[in-house]
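Workshop exercise sheet. Pairs work together: one partner reads the sequence aloud, the other fills in the structure field after running the prediction. Swap roles for the next sheet.
Pair: D.N. / O.F.
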Amino acid sequence: MQLEPKVLENRFVRLEPLALGHREDLRDACDADLRTWIELYPYSMAAEHFDPTWARIMADVEAGRTIAHALVVDGRGRGMSSYLNVDPANSAVEIGGTYYAPDLRGGPANPAAKRLLLGHAFDSGARRVQFKVDALNARSRAAVLKLGAVQEGILRQERVTWTGRIRDTVYFSILADEWPAVRDRLDARLAALG
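Structure field:
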């Protein structure tokens, strides 16, 4: 697997490698939904938590542990999604660290972005793409299943969130031999959106 950072784009969204120029747009998007950061994320990017979390993400990008993308819609950074735990030796990668401004949820942004990220991963030689979702996050769990991922199981008490809540984490995956069917369903879904 040779997964490299690059701009990915379709008619709904543009994913750009995360850079300093995205910082303030992303800060605004993150501050638009403080409740979600408190209730569902293992870390926070809202308010006073933005700067230290941004620094950690950029350090992970610099070290090659993460390939982070800004989600750009209508010329503005409105969220982000990343390749995490990039494992070339095992041809495996995780898509995560995903956050979208509230007004983008439920529309084409997520399936369009995931179509780009999944396509790039599998075109780059991935054998397995995984997703990890907080068990309490019903909206994200449903969205990952709607993409065509298979739920593999729940790791109980897998991590402690930044608020101190102990989180159960649901694991999902899509395998390379499943990707053509998943891709075709995603393409049909996006075509129906206009």
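Discussion prompt: The longest strand covers residues 76-87. What would you look at next?
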